[in-house]
Amino acid sequence: MPHDGHDHSHETPPDDGWKHTGVRVIPANSLDTNTAQTPGMNRAAAINFARVGAQKIWAGTVHIHANAKTGAHHHGALESVIYIIKGRARMRWGEKLEYVAEAGPGDFIFVPPYVPHQEINASTDETLECVLVRSDNEAVVVNLDIEPVEKPESVAWVDPIHKAP
Fold first, then answer.
1. Element (H, E) at 50
2. Do 102 and 120 touch, CB atoms closer than 8 A?
């Protein structure tokens, strides 16, 4: 193997040949709801340090009931990615939750560190179902007491690489 200045010793299979320390499949019916929660949503952990030994990520699911919204919160230094499976998400963010955007099935949402935000189920009759991934192995949730503005400003995302014509 060529020497490239990196330690590749971790690429050697452990004593069990990766049998129990390699790939893990986490069945949908075994997600762990004993994780940090925010009022208005149900989070369930699939991947974290405690469950699989993850060092750098946390992943799980989020369900928000029809016509429900979460309390305002942020995730400290963590980056979060939300993937919408089913339903319509309305995200509000900012110091007074003064900005708003919506996402539907197949859309991704990125939440940078420390950004106060609120997830809202924009549907009155369908549960919002999402997959959530964070940039650390433990869930960090800081629930906030924010007085939101009455009418948030709608913000369309502008891709810095593929700008709109």
1. helix 49-52
2. no
